[in-house]
Amino acid sequence: MKISKQDTYTLNNGVKMPVIGFGVYKIPEEQMKETIDAALDSGYRHFDTAAFYDNEKALGDALKETNVSREELFITTKVWNDDLGYEETLRAFETSLEKLQMDYLDLYLIHWPIEGKYTDAWRALEKLYEDGKVRAIGVSNFHSQHLEEVFRIATVKPMVDQLEYHPQLAQKEMKIFCDEHDIQMEAWAPLKRGVFFDEPVIQELVKKYGKTPAQIVLRWDLQTGVSTIPKSVTPERIQQNIDIFDFELTAEDMNQLDTLDTNNRLGKDPDDFSFDD
User: Fold this and answer.
1) Taking every annotated instance into account, which residue ranges of this chain make up the domain NADP-dependent oxidoreductase (predicted)?
2) Is residue 276 pLDDT above 70, yes or no?
3) pLDDT for residue 11
4) How many separate domains does the chain show?
C-alpha cells in the first residue's frame, strides 16, 4: 500500500482531503505559532480546530504569518453544541470564519449529535455548502442512527465522520457503515494520549520496524483507510508523527493490532452522553 504525505482521500463530492492532518485541541495561544510552523515544516497541510477549542483565532494568526498559500491548506472547524440550529449554526460559522481570517473553509463539521438540534444544523451546513462558503461538510461523533436521521432530511450527503478511533476503539461497524455510504472516516485521539503504547503487540512492532509506538498506530490508521489528525506541541514528535510513509505493516501485523480492540474510549460515547455534567 504505497502512500505519501502528499496523498489524499477523495470525498464523495470530489474534494481531496489529506490522508494526515494536525489537530490543535488544547494548544495554548502562546504556543500556536511555533507549533504550526513546526507542523508546516514537517509537511502537514490539513489543520483541524473547533469553536469549542477556543483557538481558531490563534490558528488563523499563525497561518497568516507563513508563506504557505491558502490553496495549499485544508482547514477544518466544527460548530459547538450551544450553536446548533439553523440560524444559530449559520452565525457560528461566520464567527469561526472571521476568527480564522479566511474567505472559506475546506471542511465544516457538527461537533456532537445533540438530539433535536443536529438536523436543523445540517440544513445550515447544506446552505453554507451550496453558497460556496465551505468545500465539504460532515459530522463528528455521529453513529449510524444519527447519520440515518441526517439522511432522512439531507439533500447533500455528509462527506466525513470524525470519530474517536485507535486500536482500542476500532469502530468496525461504523467503518463498514461509512464505507457503504461513501463517507470518509477520520480519527480523533488516534494515539489515545499514549495510554496503550506499552501493549506487548505494539512494543514488538516497535522493535520490528524501528518506529515509535505513535508511528505504528498512525500507520495502522492509514492502512485501514482512515484519515488521521495527531496532535503534539513537541517539534520532534510533530515530525515523527508524519514520518509514517517509509514502511508498511503486514497483514499479519495489522491483524495483531486489531486484537487490541476492547471498545475502550478516551472520550464520551455519542450514544450515551451529556454535557450538563
Assistant:
1) 26-260
2) no
3) 98
4) 1
- Is position 274 within any domain? no
Catalytic residue among 9, 53, 108, 129: 53
Q: Going by C-beta distance under 8 Å and a sequence separation of 6 or more, which residues neighbour residue 70?
A: 102, 103
H/E stretch holding 144 = helix 144-153
Is 270 a domain residue? no
Tens-place pLDDT, residues 38-91: 999 999 999 999 999 999 999 999 999 999 999 999 999 999 999 999 999 999
Residues annotated in a binding site: 111
Per DSSP bridges, beta strands 16-18 and 8-10 are antiparallel
Residue 88 sits in which domain range? 8-258
Binding residues for substrate: 111
Residue 51: inside a domain: yes
CATH label of the domain that carries residue 80 = 3.20.20.100
Are 26 and 56 a contacting pair, CB within 8 Å? no
Is 53 catalytic? The answer is yes
- Whole-prediction pTM value? 0.96
